User: Which sequence fits this backbone?
């Protein structure tokens, strides 16, 4: 059995990767992928916690979070499609008409 | 004729309403439970009329079939009337067995609260303000008067309001407010505590304001509405203070607690109670238009005539009397009342006496037919106040028999006056309506509307041959108000005057003031009511309009006929039943109803003896003086000045032609010298009370209002404007950080999350 702290550590690393990616990349699809990575880091934390304390809450949360992530991706992609059809770009630096 | 028939066919629409009460009876409801219907049906109907009026204004069905809501209003008021009649019936049915039992049903606790004591701990018992119904004989009498007259006057309005083009597409407002008013009146009469009584009291005040200002685009109407509202508000503030003191004394405003807990009365401070009752009386003075808060009632005649008939003659102005009648248990020393409150009775009697005399004097010189009736209303209400004052005095002096008689007479006068005055106003409305109609017909398109006043009696005269039903109704109503022997108000007025004199002669010398004033007023009533009738119906026509007047409008005659019969015969019927004793039985011994004690013949003899030939010699003199003044002297003077035969070839209906003929016999007297005297001018200016009050207001209230306006504009608004400009500039600062770049937002979210984690970490460790 793997020690839960390894799993939690992997979650921290994945979260960091996702966060840095979301900061630095311009392409909206890549940003979305980074967000998914962060989400899965959180799922890993649930798994680690459940292994450490016992019980089944974490498994259930993880299952729900995965389902929600799938829905979120669908919405995110739909937003980018409509962004592209109106702005002709999916670069986050150029999509800034909501400023001020 | 066929037109009238199709009008009557509209009554089909009120049948669903009228089915409610029998249905509830079948379902096994109790009559006292159905009391909620009396208030609830108008409560549901008034928003329906207002909303439907907005939605369907001008639609054919709404206008012609539903009479712009009039039929709905009539149905709702008919439901209230039938539920009220059911309660009256049940009450009389139970009377021989139970005496005067109060049927009370408390439905729900409205508010409950704990009181903070002076040492900042909560009091042991929870205070409860409830909602319920209180029924005793006084309630029943007023309930009957209110529901019955609301129904009849609503009926009358269908003819009066809906045929006048000026009201077109506005009547839903009239009927909605009319029904709301009815709700207020019924609720006030049924309420089982002073708090709800006050709430409904204010609803009536609001409706009075709205309906006086029905023609709000006329400056005089808007002014009159404002004046009525503000003047009665003065009284209402005092009433509220009185209720506060009352709550302080008893710890409750429920009738059942205040009236029926003898242990409370033993410990009550009579000086404190005196002030509470006096404050409440001032509230009654405002509502019932008594001196010195009487100035609003004559101006209130700016409203449509049905409003004058209902609110300012027959029901709302009786609210003050009802409040004073509710004071009896406080002062009834024979039944655990508080001794030492005789002064209250004296004050009430004096206010009544002064108002009765003053209003009758001002009525001498009025030429507007509705203004005469308005002053007459003030004067007659003042009679009832005098009677109630004497009753309170007697109760507090433990003269139980005299107290019961004069209290009953006062309540009975309230009944007679409401019936007669409601009918007189409707009759005057009929006259005004037809004269106006005739004038429009005659001068169609000539446009001298501005100079013709259809309410001015100097434009009438000789209408007896044109309007037989109205003339008869007005004659009977005037007779009831004057107190012509055997008709309507005679029985009750005689009782009030006699008992006031009894108090003055045998017990309290100070009572002589009101006693003299009311007996003089009896004669003056005879004059001004006869003057009104003769000016309107007898003599030669005073303008060319009269020849074109017809009694043609539908819906107007039926209420007049019904009320004529009641005014003419109701008094004698009730007198035979011993009504004066009965109506006061709720505060007296049970079983006063003479019908159950002796045969009908004995009862008749008893009543006749007491009205015409009281046992006391002095009272016998007083009684016959009253009859002489009101029956002979007043009307004869009026006939000499204003009477006269009709024009050649005109003949009146037999019911009134005898009166016209007699009036012609007295010849005519020239009084132009008298009418130019200083006294007449003072009376025409209403004894300068209005000027005095306006002057006082200009000196005191207006500067204060100007200061308040300045304070509001500069201090209160200034603070708010400063806050507003600060938040505008602040938000301009804040919006610079919204860059529109998703990267910045993610950064902000991350920094925010990290600081929250850091915060939790810091607190945890």
Assistant:
């Amino acid at each position: 059995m793997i020690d839960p702290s390894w799993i939690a550590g992997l979650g921290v690393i994945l979260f960091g990767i996702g966060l840095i990616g979301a900061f630095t990349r311009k392409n909206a699809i890549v940003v979305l992928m980074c967000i998914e990575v962060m989400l899965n880091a959180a799922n890993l934390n649930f798994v680690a916690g459940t292994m450490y304390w016992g019980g089944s809450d974490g498994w259930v949360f993880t299952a729900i979070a995965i389902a929600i992530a799938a829905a979120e991706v669908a919405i995110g992609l739909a937003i980018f499609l409509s962004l592209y059809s109106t702005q002709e770009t999916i670069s986050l630096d150029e999509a800034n008409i909501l400023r001020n | 004729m066929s037109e009238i028939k199709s009008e009557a066919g509209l009554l089909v629409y009120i049948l669903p309403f009228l089915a409610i009460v029998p249905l509830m009876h079948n379902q096994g409801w109790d009559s006292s439970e159905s009391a909620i219907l009396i208030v609830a049906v108008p409560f549901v109907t008034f928003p329906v009329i207002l909303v439907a009026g907005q939605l369907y204004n001008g639609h054919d069905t709404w206008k012609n079939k539903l009479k712009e809501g009039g039929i709905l209003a009539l149905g709702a008021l008919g439901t209230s009337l039938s539920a009220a009649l059911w309660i009256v019936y049940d009450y009389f049915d139970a009377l021989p067995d139970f005496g005067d039992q109060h049927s009370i049903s408390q439905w729900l606790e409205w508010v409950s609260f704990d009181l903070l004591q002076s040492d900042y701990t909560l009091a042991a018992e929870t205070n409860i303000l409830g909602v319920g119904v209180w029924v005793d004989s006084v309630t029943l009498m007023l309930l009957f008067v209110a529901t019955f007259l609301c129904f009849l006057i609503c009926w009358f309005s269908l003819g009066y309001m809906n045929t006048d083009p000026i009201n077109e597409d506005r009547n839903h407002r009239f009927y909605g407010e009319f029904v709301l008013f009815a709700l207020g009146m019924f609720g006030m009469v049924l309420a089982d505590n002073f708090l709800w009584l006050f709430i409904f009291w204010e609803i009536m005040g609001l409706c009075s304001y709205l309906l006086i200002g029905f023609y709000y685009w006329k400056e005089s109407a808007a002014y009159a509405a404002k004046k009525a509202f503000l003047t009665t508000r003065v009284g209402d503030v005092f009433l509220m203070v009185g209720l506060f003191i009352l709550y302080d004394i008893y710890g409750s405003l429920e009738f059942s607690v205040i009236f029926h807990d003898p242990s409370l009365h033993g410990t009550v401070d009579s000086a404190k109670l005196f002030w509470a009752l006096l404050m409440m009386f001032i509230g009654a003075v405002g509502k019932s238009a008594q001196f010195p808060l009487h100035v609003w009632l004559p101006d209130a005649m700016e409203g449509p005539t049905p409003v004058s008939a209902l609110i300012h003659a027959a029901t709302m102005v009786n609210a003050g009397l009802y409040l004073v009648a509710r004071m009896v248990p406080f002062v009834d020393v024979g039944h655990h009342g508080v001794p030492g409150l005789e002064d209250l009775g004296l004050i009430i009697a004096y206010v009544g006496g002064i108002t009765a005399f003053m209003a009758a004097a001002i009525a001498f010189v009025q030429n507007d037919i509705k203004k005469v009736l308005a002053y007459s209303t003030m004067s007659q209400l003042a009679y009832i106040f005098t009677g109630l004052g004497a009753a309170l005095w007697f109760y507090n002096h433990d003269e139980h028999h005299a107290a019961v008689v004069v209290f009953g007479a006062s309540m009975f006068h309230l009944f007679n006056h409401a019936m007669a005055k409601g009918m007189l106003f409707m009759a005057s409305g009929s006259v005004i309506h037809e004269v106006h109609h005739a004038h429009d017909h005659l001068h169609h398109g000539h446009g001298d509307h501005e100079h013709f006043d259809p309410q001015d009696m100097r434009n009438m005269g000789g209408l007896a041959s044109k309007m037989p039903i109205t003339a008869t109704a007005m004659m009977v109503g005037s007779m009831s108000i004057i107190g012509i022997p055997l008709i309507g108000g005679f029985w009750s007025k005689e009782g009030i005057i006699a008992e006031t004199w009894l108090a003055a002669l045998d017990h309290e010398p100070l009572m002589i003031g009101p006693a003299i004033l009311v007996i003089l007023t009896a004669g003056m009533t005879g004059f001004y009511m006869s003057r009104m009738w003769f000016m309107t119906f007898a003599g030669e026509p005073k303008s060319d309009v009269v020849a074109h007047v017809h009694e043609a409008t539908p819906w107007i005659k039926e209420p007049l006929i019904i009320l004529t019969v009641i005014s003419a015969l109701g008094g004698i019927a009730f007198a035979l039943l011993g009504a004066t004793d009965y109506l006061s039985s709720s505060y007296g011994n049970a079983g006063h109803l003479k019908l159950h004690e002796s045969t009908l013949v004995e009862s008749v003899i008893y009543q006749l003896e007491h009205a015409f030939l009281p046992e006391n010699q002095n009272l016998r003199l007083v009684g016959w003086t009253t009859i002489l003044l009101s029956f002979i002297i007043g009307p004869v003077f009026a006939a000499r000045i204003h009477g006269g035969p009709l024009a050649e070839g005109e003949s009146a209906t037999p019911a009134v032609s005898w009166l016209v003929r007699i009036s012609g016999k007295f010849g005519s007297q020239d009084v132009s010298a008298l009418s130019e005297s200083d006294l007449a001018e003072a009376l025409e200016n209403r004894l300068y009370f209005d000027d005095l009050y306006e002057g006082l207001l200009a000196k005191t209230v207006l500067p204060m209002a100007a200061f308040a306006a300045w304070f509001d504009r500069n201090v209160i608004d200034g603070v708010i404007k400063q806050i507003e400009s600060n938040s505008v500039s602040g938000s301009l600062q804040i919006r610079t950080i919204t860059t529109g770049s998703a990267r910045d937002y993610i950064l902000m979210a991350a920094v925010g999350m990290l600081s929250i984690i850091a915060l939790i970490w810091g607190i945890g460790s």
